[in-house]
Amino acid sequence: MNPANVLLLPGWHNSGPTHWQSRWEVAHGYVRVQQHDWDRPLRGDWLMQLDAAVLDAVGEVILVAHSLGCIQVAAWAAHSQHTQRIKAALLVAPADVEREAVRALLPSWSPITRQTLPFKSVLVASGNDPFCIWAQSQALARDWGSALVDGGPIGHINAEADLGDWPQGQTLLLRLQELK
Asked: Domains (ranges, CATH) in the chain?
């Protein structure tokens, strides 16, 4: 698959230089979907940016989302007319934007869209993620029709987890790329 057809969807505040998404962007040439405001994310704006990126890609696309990016994928898939362009999605450490502490900070993101995704997906979660308890990750995987992978006790599966290039994630992405 053309690396330009792998779209990286970081979460709230973007992914810094030591985050596995940033490392994959540099190492493999995957494309980060840019947002107008990473610190005050507006759902509608983020969905439009994703729609534009999917339309800019030539051929099938694989989405690689982290945290709020996972919630973005679910919301986008429920409204976009371009979901047939998506081959698959790797959804990593979804953020629970319905938590009381987060709803006020991200008001346009709740409730979480809970429709089955119209493309294959794998959701990777950690049992000790401070931003989404395991039971919520399980429920999201079920609601979205995603295969659930236990990433182990590695927190939010971000730069603080010190995953380097996160080879487990790269293996999952390669499997999605090989799907027929």
From this structure: 3-178 (3.40.50.1820)
